[in-house]
Design a protein that fits this description.
Layout lengths: L1 H23 L15 H5 L5 E6 L7 H16 L4 E6 L7 H9 L7 E5 L23 H8 L2 H12 L4 E16 L13 E4 L3 H9 L3 E4 L5 H7 L4 E5 H6 L8 E17 H6 L2 H35 L3 E4 L4 H6 L1 H8 L3 H8 L3
Parallel strand pairs: 1-2, 1-3, 5-6, 8-9
Antiparallel strand pairs: 3-8, 4-7, 4-8
Helix pairs in contact: 3-11
Amino acid sequence: MKLKKLMSIILAVSLAGGLAACGSGAKKEDSPGTQAGQTTQEAGQKEASIILTYAEVNPADSLDGQVGSFFKEQVESLSNGSVTIDIQASGVLGAENDVLDNMTAGGGTVDMARISCFALTNYGGKLSALPSVPFTFDNREHYWKFAESEMGQKILDEPSGLGLGVKGLFLMEEGFRHFFFNAEIKGIEDLKGKKIRVSSDPILTGVVDHLGASPTVISFNELYSSLQSGVVDGADQPTALYESNAFNEVAPYLIEDGHTMSASEVIITEDAWNKLSDGQKAAVSEAGKAAGQYCRELSSKIEEESKERLKEKGVTFIEVADKQPWKDACQSIISEYTAGYENEYKQIVNLK
């Protein structure tokens, strides 16, 4: 009995020592599905990787292309790589209306795009038309006061409110739009009878018509050859985009009338937006704010540098000392596209 009791004590001591060793010196195995130092809850919260296709009608090295690249970098950094932006530049996914048709119809080919604000007028946008009303903004500072105001946010929110299936993320600008021609002109009187390219934008069409010219619908991708062959006599673009699309080669006369600020915005389909986690949405929104500021700083710099290069390439710039005759000619267009939104338009104008 004594021997049996002694063996029991020895066994108990041995087991206690083994358990103590496990508690103090043995390495704890990670549970399946987690990494060392990571809890099961943390592993479960890892965000799914998402690729968003982004359409841009202009070349990658243009102002818009550079802002798009900056936005891409910011999104991918802020989302820790869980959101990737696949930029398809140079209009490979189609013209703005093609892209908008796809996005609003739920086509799924395009998740994001930079579009001109006026492009939404064909989809029922009323507030979205206001930044494109001729001679609204006095200068860039005026435009950016608007972009960062409550009115700017209302315009970003409009497409979603209309049930178009897209939402605005942030506003941009490409500079003031100017007319350019393949033959010499000196002033507003020389526009009479000229065939000027327009898209499907009703505001630009009205401006061209009221300036005495003939609005002619031509695809953007066909504009260079149309200017070269004389199908149209002129078109309009901001200075930097005029250069980046090489229109100076076939239309070297640019009149600085600044009839419209080339306001644009980056939009995303609601289907794509709803696939993002809250953290990813926050990353995209923050990246959008940063990209807007980047555009503001870059646009003026690029335009100044572009103008100097264009002068060296032989482009003739025609200065417009008095824009009042231009504005007077477009007064009915201004009234037409602000009708019913006079108070909102007045708010924009008064942000000087």
